[in-house]
Structures are given as C-alpha cells and as structure tokens.
Amino acid sequence: MARYLDKSEIFAVSVVGIDAPEGEQCWAAQSTQFARDHLLGRRVMLSAEATLPNTDPTGALVRRVVLDNDMDGDYAIKAAREGAARAHATDHVRLASQLLSAEAGARDTHRGLWTCDGSIPVAAPSPDPGPRPAP
C-alpha cells in the first residue's frame, strides 16, 4: 500500500498486481524502502482497473501505478522483477502475464524477497576449530 498526495489530499493506494511483504514479514523493510526509492516525490499516474473494485476492504484506492519518465512504466512489474513484491495476478488484471514473468525472473535469480522462506539455503557458520595443538 502506498500513500498518494493530490494537491492537499492524501489517499491510500493499493497497487494492482502485487503483494508486498508487510510488518514483520521477511523483506518488508527492504520492500518499503524500494517503494520509497521509486515512488516518493515522483510523478505517477494512477489508473483504475475496470474489472476490479474501486477500493479494497481497508478503503484504499485500488490502482495501477504508472511511473512517469521511467523506462519500466508499471511500478508493479518493476517491483515484482526486483523481488520487492510477489505478483498477485488474476484473470482480472490486464498485465497478469507480465507480472508473473517478472516474478519468475526474480525468483529464478534469487532477488529480493526470494531470498526468504528457505528458498535459498543459508550456509551454517563454520565452527570454530579452536586452538591448534602444538607440533
């Protein structure tokens, strides 16, 4: 979820097509920072999906977020490709195949949140061999 400022009004926005980690979930802080780095203080276009409700259960606007002056264009695709969020694509989302492809690329290369949940084994620290016996 992101906040959006329009003149003097602030709106909560639920980004169509992704599910980002929150709270204490693995990679939540990095995902939030990714959103700040790519959205805060930048011009974006919010676009409603005709097949989705206008708001989510929390009252946030449900919108695609299109990045202005950014080669990636769609924020959800960028976040999924970089592993900052999981694709949450349904038949009702226009860019579902692109979102799923972006997520697969991040998952296959172990980027972002795909380093969580045991998807990449973490090597155990080497045990301290202790002092060596004198020759």
Summarize the SSE layout with pairings.
Layout: E1 2-6, E2 9-15, E3 18-19, H1 28-39, E4 44-47, E5 61-67, H2 75-82, E6 86-87, H3 96-108
Parallel strand pairs: 2-5
Antiparallel strand pairs: 1-2, 3-6, 4-5
Category from helices, strands and their pairing: alpha+beta
Gross morphology is: globular
Number of helices: 3
Spans where pLDDT lies below 50 across 5 or more residues: 118-130
β-sheet strand percentage:
15-25%
Helix and strand sequence = EEEHEEHEH
The first-level CATH class is given as Mainly Beta
Spatial extent as radius of gyration: 19 Å
CATH topology: OB fold (Dihydrolipoamide Acetyltransferase, E2P)
* Integer tally of domains: 1
CATH architecture: Beta Barrel
DSSP, total strands: 6
In percent, how helical is the residue content?
10-25%
Q: Mean pLDDT score, rounded?
A: 82
Largest sheet: 4 strands, mixed
Adjacency order of strands in the biggest sheet: 1-2-5-4
From the N-terminal CA to the C-terminal CA, the straight-line distance is 64 Å
Mind explaining what this structure looks like?
This protein has helices at 28-39, 75-82, 96-108; strands at 2-6, 9-15, 18-19, 44-47, 61-67, 86-87. α2 packs parallel to α3. A hairpin with a 2-residue loop joins β1 and β2 (9-15). It contains three helices and six strands. It has a single domain, classed as Beta Barrel (OB fold (Dihydrolipoamide Acetyltransferase, E2P)), CATH 2.40.50. The longest helix is centred in the last third of the chain and has 13 residues, at 96-108. Residues 118-130 have low confidence and may be disordered. The radius of gyration is 19 Å and the shape is globular. It is of the alpha+beta class and 135 residues long.
